[in-house]
Amino acid sequence: MDCWTSHLSMDDEFEKLVIRMNPPRVTVDNASSRKATLIKVDSANKRGTLLELVQVLTDLNLIIRRAYISSDGEWFMDVFHVTDRNGNKLFDDDLADRIQQSLGPRARSFRSLRRSVGVQAAMEHTTIELTGRDRPGLLSEVFAVLADLKCNVVAAEVWTHNSRMASVVYITDEAIGMPIDDPDRLAKIKQLLLYVLKGDRDKRGANTAVSVGSTHKDRRLHQMMYADRDYDMDDTDCVSTSDRRKLLVTVENCVDKGYTVVNLMSPDRPKLLFDAVCTLTDMQYVVYHATIIAEGPEAYQEYFIRHMDGCPISSEAERQRVIHCLEAAIKRRTSEGIRLELCGEDRIGLLSDVTRIFRENGLSVTRAEVTTRGSQAVNAFYVTDASGNPVKSETIEAVRNEIGLTVLHVKDEAYSKSPPQESGRFSLGNIFRSRSEKFLYNLGLIKSYS
Fold it and tell me: What are the ACT domain coordinates in residue numbering (predicted)?
């Protein structure tokens, strides 16, 4: 084991040396295309370079319209056709420098990032990572426990797919606004959250083990759901014919060249390329060549891949696994339900109250993005009814009236808004709590329900 660890360390140091000797060269070309800015990257090749680059472009909120990728050999050469969110070319003089700095030598390797989910203290917050079986009201119960334990949620992201849930939650101590690092308190937080996650139906088991190292939030969510095997379809799950037509993944071997060719066709959306490249990288495949076209409503992606040992996919079972994993990665971020945006003054316990009101009105959260900007809470929730069906407009309006019409907004073109009404104050809800909150109280997970 010591010899193996030493060998990995030497490989990491050699990669860093190669990158220092051959730093990435990034050029921004606004002359070659009328519609997009071309970002060209030449770099010494190392494992994960493509994912790092796509991650950087995604985090800069750039839309990748086309991409041509080649990394066969010791050199990495990519060309990306990008625009901003509004479809405009880019004229940021510092863009090339920002990308180049982001692709420099990293202090940590990819291997240090592949750990279990759990609780981790950082400089500004404590990170909680959760996985378990999804169910209506689960998010409300999680936030209720955190509020009762005097934890302030400063940010969070929640994904659900195939009856599974993964969440990354950033918390601070309610009293002092600092990370929570007391081992006994962290152990209590993990224990109570694990009890909530397990419920009485989770056959696979929930997870709140301690995390070592950190990684990009979206990548971590993919890793968590992949480790939780959300790509395995339950007997009760079924995929409609229309969904299959919208998403198509094929995997075939190119015998004469020694590659496996992955073709993907899907409705285009932001971060689609990141989701695919992230999945292939974390499944231990190397992308040698790729072509991406996403200039219309549909996106087409083609990857020439091999295992890390240079071999193509060799079995039908593995081929099917790659298909299922890529399909799952694309569907995880697909937004189901009506998008509700909450924007208002942040306060302790806000998320606990909001998600409780959702639950009391029969809403189920399929995805959530929680952020804090200064003193403002800027949150987005995708909601359905408890059965996964569209929510009735009168239910949405009842929720908005309770939370506040100027605080909670509907962002859905298909939703028919009600006539403007007088804004309501944020309400603490009904006198009677739901059965799940009483259940938490009886277990001692929260101190009161009235």
Answer: 38-118, 127-204, 339-415
Residue 33 shares a structural domain with residue 125:
no
Residue 231 resides in a domain = no
Give CB contacts under 8 A, 24+ apart, made by 51-57: 51/219, 51/274, 51/277, 51/278, 51/281, 52/102, 52/103, 53/78, 53/99, 53/103, 54/273, 54/274, 54/277, 55/216, 55/219, 55/274, 55/278, 56/98, 56/99, 56/102, 56/103, 57/82, 57/99
210 and 342 assigned to the same domain: yes
- Do 340 and 428 lie in a common domain? yes
Beta-strand (E) ranges in 332-391? 338-345, 363-373, 376-385
* Residue where a domain terminates, one of 332, 364, 385: 332
Do 78 and 68 meet the contact criterion of CB atoms below 8 Å apart?
yes
Cα 167 from Cα 118, distance rounded (Å):
10
Q: What predicted TM-score, i.e. pTM, was given to this entire model?
A: 0.82
Helix (H, G, I), strand (E, B) or coil at 268: coil
Residue 306 CB neighbour total at 10 angstroms:
17
pLDDT tens readout for residues 203-229 = 566 777 444 346 689 999 999 999 999
Counting the structural domains of the chain, the total is 2
Sequence-distant (6+) residues with CB within 8 A of 271 are 58, 218, 333
One domain, residues 273 and 132: no
CA distance 249 to 245: 10
Is 140 found in the same domain as 92? no
Tokens found for residue 200:
């009485």
Residue 245: inside a domain, yes or no? yes
Number of neighbours of residue 264 by Cβ within 10 angstroms: 22
Kindly state whether residue 227 falls inside one of the protein's structural domains. no
Residue 92 sits at φ, ψ, to 5 deg, of -90, 115
**Last-in-domain residue among 307, 332, 357:** 332
Which tokens belong to 98?
């920002």
Handedness of CA 274, 277, 281, 286 (dihedral sign): negative
Answer yes or no: is 449 within a domain.
Answer: no
Domain identity same for 208 and 341: yes
Residue 396's domain comprises 119-214+336-442
pLDDT in tens, 56-111: 999 999 999 999 999 877 788 899 999 999 999 998 888 888 887 777 554 333 33
Starting from the edge strand earliest in sequence, which strands make up the sheet with 37-44, in order?
A: 25-29, 37-44, 75-83, 63-70, 285-293, 298-307, 259-267, 248-254
Question: Quick count: other Cβ atoms within 10 Å of Cβ 139?
Answer: 28
